[in-house]
Write a structure and sequence with these properties.
The complex is a heterodimer of chains A (111) and B (374).
Chain A lengths: L8 H4 L9 H15 L6 H14 L3 H13 L4 H21 L1 H11 L2
Helix pairs in contact in A: 3-4, 3-5
Chain B lengths: L38 H9 L10 H7 L12 E5 L26 H13 L4 E5 L9 H10 L3 E6 L12 H7 L3 E5 L5 H8 L3 H14 L11 E5 L10 H16 L5 E4 L6 H9 L3 H10 L14 E4 L5 E2 L2 H5 L18 H5 L10 H4 L12
Parallel strand pairs in B: 1-2, 1-7, 2-3, 3-4, 4-5, 5-6
Antiparallel strand pairs in B: 7-8
Classes of the chains: A mainly alpha (111), B alpha/beta (374).
Chain lengths: 111, 374
């Protein structure tokens, strides 16, 4: 049992995950690098999407990494905050829109 | 002869010259007698950093990338640091410049020695820096002399200095001589700019950019070239200048009706006040790791230490302004080179002096006084 579930130094050592399965790690990291290369979306757009998703999956490693990445792609606090609000709105909206299922069930079950 | 105030302000006398009122986000290390005011202490601090899994031996990393030492390319830029006096005191300053720095100002004799040395070289550009070079009493003299010798002249400008009463008319004067203005602006939005350069710095910068545009600067005229220079406001690498330049142009035009010609983005160097900030904010080790891990072999060929000569206020020769601040003299035969005894052949056959801070120029897209090196 470790003292903490999340250790900041794990981020820098992420590559060590290849030890148990070098081939799968290679495929994953190659794919990962290709995903973040500039394409139809810019590198900054991809960083801001990653930042929003990081908040949704609540990954502290990803939040650190994509805050730095977004800054280094020229984004600023206002843009990054808007990205986090997008994640927040979709999460909140996802809860709320399930209310439609609740309503439907209520109508069916009720008199 | 240049004359300086007979009573230079005392070390803690930041505020004693009201004519130098400017935005402040810090006080000079020197005025606070801070331990890191000494270049030796800065180098020791950099050497003390240890990072798991990262090699911080710059020469070894260079060698592994196939470059055995840095050697000069043809000399292009003759950079004169006129002194450390500045009306601003930015948090990230690698010079420890400020309004109390009358202790470090180039004399007219040294300026004359610079002009004699310039004549020996192939440099096509004279790059004036500081401090705020415009505050030097001989600033206009140096510009005139360099222009008379057919050189392209760069004024590295903090923008707010152009608003001081003593500099009324300076923009027109520089424009008439075709001087390029390379102006510092961390960001086109206020928040990041004021955090780095002091409250009010952004408004003053915008006002100064208005003056420059009104004087014909920043509108595609090669004789009125306005380059903006952006440092990140924090412990992260500079954005790719080619990808943010058009965004900056659009935003400054839309929000302020301002234009400029090109954008340089450069990394902050772990030196002087930025080093102190890194230490105080617990960012030194992660930042050094970031620089080292972002080493880009493609950034090496265009490093400014290869095509620049950097001369300090006291007439010593350095590979770059950063080595100058760390007092890492160019000393190919063990003796520090001086401008009075300048020998161009010896200069071109030297080897560049490197330490750990050099990772700042090879990180990412590369970083120099001329922007990215890739």
């Amino acid at each position: 049992m470790t003292e903490h579930y999340y250790k900041p130094e794990h981020l820098a050592r992420f590559g060590d995950i290849s030890e148990g399965s070098p081939e799968l790690a290679r495929k994953f990291f190659d794919y990962y690098a290709a995903v973040f290369a500039p394409g139809a979306l810019t590198e900054r757009e991809k960083s801001l999407i990653a930042l929003a998703v990081a908040h949704t999956v609540q990954c502290p490693y990803c939040i650190d990494a994509y805050t730095t990445a977004s800054l280094e792609k020229g984004a600023d606090l206002e843009q990054m905050t808007e990205a986090v609000h997008v994640a927040c709105a979709i999460r909140g909206g996802a809860s709320l829109v399930h209310g439609m299922q609740m309503k439907e069930h209520e109508q069916k079950a009720g008199m | 002869m240049t004359t300086f105030p007979s009573k230079a302000p005392e070390a803690d006398g930041d505020e004693r010259d009201p004519s130098l009122a400017g935005p402040r986000s810090a006080k000079t290390l020197r005025s606070r007698h801070a331990p890191l005011s000494s270049p030796a202490a800065q180098l020791a601090k950099l050497e003390s950093v240890s990072i798991e899994g990262s090699a911080l031996d710059f020469e070894a990393v260079l060698a592994a990338a196939g470059t055995a030492g840095l050697h000069p390319a043809p000399l292009e830029v003759f950079q004169i640091n006129l002194g450390k006096l500045c009306n601003m005191t930015c948090r990230h300053c690698h010079v420890d410049a400020g309004p109390d720095r009358w202790d470090a100002m180039m004399t007219r004799d040294t300026i004359e020695a610079c002009l004699r040395a310039l004549a020996q070289t192939t440099a096509h550009t004279v790059d004036l820096t500081g401090g705020a070079p415009e505050l030097h009493p001989d600033f206009r003299y140096v510009v005139e002399q360099a222009v008379a010798r057919g050189k392209h002249v760069i004024d590295r400008c903090n923008l707010s200095v152009l608003l001081l009463p003593r500099n009324t008319g300076l923009v027109e004067w520089l424009g008439e001589r075709g001087v390029e203005i390379v102006a510092s602006l961390p960001h086109y939005r206020k928040r990041n700019t004021d955090a780095q350069r002091g409250d009010g710095a952004f408004e003053k910068s915008i006002e100064a950019l208005r003056l420059l545009n009104a004087g014909g600067y920043g509108q595609g005229n090669p004789k009125r070239m306005l380059t903006l220079m952006s440092n990140p406001a924090g412990a992260f690498l500079a954005a790719a200048q080619h990808s943010v330049e058009s965004e900056w142009k659009t935003a400054l035009q839309r929000e302020w009706g301002l234009s400029f010609d090109r954008l340089f983005a450069l990394n902050n160097m772990p030196i002087s006040r930025f080093l102190e900030w890194l230490v105080d904010s617990d960012n030194l080790e992660p930042y050094m790791a970031r620089l080292a891990q972002s080493f880009n072999p493609a950034a090496v060929a265009g490093l400014m230490c290869r095509n620049t000569i950097s001369i300090s206020w006291d007439g010593r020769l350095f590979d770059c302004d950063f080595n100058q601040m760390l007092e890492l003299d160019a000393a190919p035969d063990g003796r520090a080179m001086r401008v009075e005894s300048f020998d161009f052949a010896a200069w071109q056959s030297r080897r560049v002096v490197t330490r750990r801070h050099c990772f700042g120029c090879t990180a990412g897209a590369g970083s120099s006084c001329g922007g990215a090196t890739t």
